[in-house]
Amino acid sequence: MALTLATLSSACTAENVDYRAPVDEAPIAADSPSALAVLRLINHPSTTYSVLDARVGLDRRAAMRIIARRDGMDGLAGTADDQPFLDLASLDAVKYVGDAALNRLAEYAHAHGWVVDDAAAYGVVMGIQFSMGEARRALDLANRADADTLEYMIGLAPDVVEALVEVRPFASLQEVILLSEVDQAALKALRGW
After folding, report:
1. C-alpha dist (Å) from residue 168 to 13, 59, 78, 171, 173
2. Strand pairing partners for 128?
3. Residue ranges of domains in the chain
4. Angle at CA of residue 65, ends 173 and 115, nearest 5°
5. How confident is the model at residue 23, as a pLDDT?
6. Which residue has the higher pLDDT, 79 or 94?
7. 131-135, 140-144, 154-158: range with lowest mean pLDDT
8. Torsion over CA of 36, 39, 45 and 48, rounded to 10 degrees?
9. What sign does the dihedral 189-89-91-54 (CA atoms) show?
10. Which of 141, 130, 126 is nearest to 190 (CA)?
11. How high is the pLDDT of residue 7?
12. 128/21: higher pLDDT
């Protein structure tokens, strides 16, 4: 039986979900709203070991390893050594995390409002309006596209490409625009790709 998150999101509320109950182990699509919701949940500083263990219902070893990996060597969220999860594969690579844990996280994320529609407004960045989908794609390009793709296909200037490749990964578009080389033209090119 496949996990149907569309049904789940309309039927589940925080009050009626048993997070300790077995879940289907069907994989979550990497670019789906569910995957993005899981990453938002996991990377948010309010998501602690206790939340993952007691509320989400993850194996305590998985919860401990997720938080330890995310918070870095100092063990504190929101500091310079943090290692946010940029994709589902990096989360899945954590020991004791698999499809069942990812689906449990997705169920919790749906029940607690972490899912955002791609067409919803992200906001204005450097005077440019972004939808959630455009912001996600632009950030993904900044984090993953190789230098040739950034320069020759997207049309970014060589100094912008060099800065992006040298500094990444970025957790948000706000981090991307902190680079002095990234101007409005570069941001428009990333959004338009």
Report:
1. 37, 31, 17, 9, 11
2. 125
3. 28-111, 121-192
4. 45
5. 46
6. 94
7. 131-135
8. 130
9. positive
10. 141
11. 36
12. 128
